[in-house]
Structure formats: C-alpha cells, structure tokens
Amino acid sequence: MKRAFNDLKNKLYFSRLNLLHNSGINKGLIRPFEDEMYESLEDVVYAGTPANIYLKYQQPMMGPGKCYDRSYVISMAFKDCLLASGKHKDLELKYGSGHAGHCWVEKDGWCYDPTHMLKFKQELYYQMFQPTDVKKSPRCDLEKDEFYQQCLSGHFERMSLICTIPLLEEIAKLSNNQDYIKEIERYKVKVNYDYETIREELYSAVESIEVKK
C-alpha cells in the first residue's frame, strides 16, 4: 500500500514537472542559452578546447553526469554569478538520494542548467526541481583557483593542436552537425592551424631536447 502511494506521488510530481516545463516554455520563463553567452566563451579554453565549442557541441553528446564541469564552464561566461549545487527532486526519484546531486549557475534571476542546456527563471526552477542542500559559490571565489584563471586566459599549448584539432574534427564529422563543423573551421583559422607546420615544430622541439641530452 505504501509503495503504491509513493508511486502515485512520484507520478503526480513528474506530471506537475511536465506542466510547469510546458507552461514555462510558453511564457518565456524557460529559454535557450543566449548567443552572447557562447560568444563570451570563445577566448576561454577548457580541457584544451575552446569553451564555447566544449559547452555547445561536445557536452550534450556525452549525456548526464557532467553537470559540474559544464556549470564550471558556464560560470566563466559571466563577470558576476553564482555556481550552485544541491540535490534535485527529479534525480532523487529517478536514481536515489545518492545520485541526486546537480550543479547549475545563477545569474540575474535566471538558472542556467547545463544538462537541459536551458535557462529558467529562478523561481520556476526551484519550483520545478525543488533543490535541497543548496550551496552557492560566487565567481570571485572561483577566480582564486589557478586552473580557473588559466582557462580564462585562453592559454593552450600550440603543440597540443596536433591532437586536439583532428579529434574535434572527427567528433564534428560523426555528429553530422554542420554548425559544429563550421565552428571547428573558424577555430582553425583563429589559431593559425596547419597540421604539417605544427608537426615540423613538434619534431624540431623533440630533436632540440635530444641534442641537449
């Protein structure tokens, strides 16, 4: 009897979640990430990849479980925001309390969700997902981290392009996403990528090390 009652409660919760989602879309309270957010990440490098490409094209292909990485990257798009984490009720009901953890970014009354790749009005977001054990870190605290600063600086090792670019090109080709393919081509022009030139530079660097030995 208790199980049947819990099942009914869960069904009611997800029905309500669906209604709130559809209503939010219709009222403009749930929207796609703005183009300006992606543009502000063009000069940020995360995991050897331009952050706008990493966020917009790669992460959604990898499914859930990467919300902390994605939110970390999203926070780099804003000068002033909060990196938030907590337990979401929908995840708790689906996967259990031990797997209910989630992360998102809050900015100017909006919640940027890295799994849905949508921004929600904060009041609606909390109404829908009913987060608990919520913790928030301001970006100014995140900036104290050396890795965070390195990402913001856009620094990357030129030699790494010989591995990074072909990998990105292959993923883009497999995705069959023309926008993704064009974005990679723009990035290659931006970093002055030429496979043969970089390969020669790499060989020269290795030979130089050998000579020094």
Strand order of the largest sheet: 1-7-6-5-4-8
H and E string: HEHEEHHEHEEEHEHHHHH
Tally of individual domains: 2
* Beta-strand fraction estimate: 15-25%
Overall pLDDT metric: 89
Oligomer: single chain
Q: What does the overall shape look like?
A: elongated
List low-pLDDT spans: none
Helix content: 55-70%
> From the alpha-carbon coordinates, what is the Rg to the nearest angstrom?
21 Å
What is the number of helical segments per DSSP (H or I, 4+ residues)?
11
Q: Largest sheet at a glance?
A: 6 strands, antiparallel
Q: Gap between N and C termini, in Å?
A: 76 Å
Helix-strand category: alpha+beta
Number of strands: 8
Task: Walk me through what this model shows.
The protein is α+β, with helices and mostly antiparallel strands and 213 residues long. It folds into two domains: 2-153, no CATH class; 158-212, no CATH class. It is 57% helix and 16% strand. It has eleven helices and eight strands. The strands form two sheets. The chain has a six-stranded antiparallel β-sheet. The longest helix has 26 residues, at 2-27. It is elongated, with a radius of gyration of 21 Å. The N and C termini lie far apart (76 Å). The model has no long low-confidence stretch (mean pLDDT 89).
Question: Helices, strands, pairings?
Answer:
Layout: H1 2-27, E1 30-32, H2 35-39, E2 45-46, E3 49-50, H3 51-58, H4 67-75, E4 82-87, H5 89-95, E5 101-107, E6 110-113, E7 118-121, H6 122-129, E8 132-138, H7 139-142, H8 146-153, H9 161-175, H10 178-190, H11 195-212
Antiparallel strand pairs: 1-7, 2-3, 4-5, 4-8, 5-6, 6-7
Helix pairs in contact: 1-6, 9-10
